[in-house]
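Course assignment 3, question 2. Fill in each field.
Student: A.L.
Task: Predict the tertiary structure for the chain below.
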Amino acid sequence: MKRFLLDTNTGECNIPNGLRLGQEPPPDFFFDVASLYPEYLTDLNVLVCPSDSQSDATRSGIWNVGGFPTASPDPCRVGSLS
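Answer field:
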């Protein structure tokens, strides 16, 4: 499970991921991408389901540094979306 979540106020990956039900950000039940990317998981696109109606969000940069489409991937931003 992911160890930390992205703090959207600071841009840092420092919020412990736990059972924070009803709090922002909500818990993300996804594997810890930072422990695998880029050494073992070299292409994050394999995590995107092509039939998911929200898969366009990954191409628009939701998983990139700062959420920008042209920025490099940020393992902390990768989550259970798609």
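Instructor remarks: The chain has one domain: 4-67. The mean pLDDT is 80.
Grade: pending
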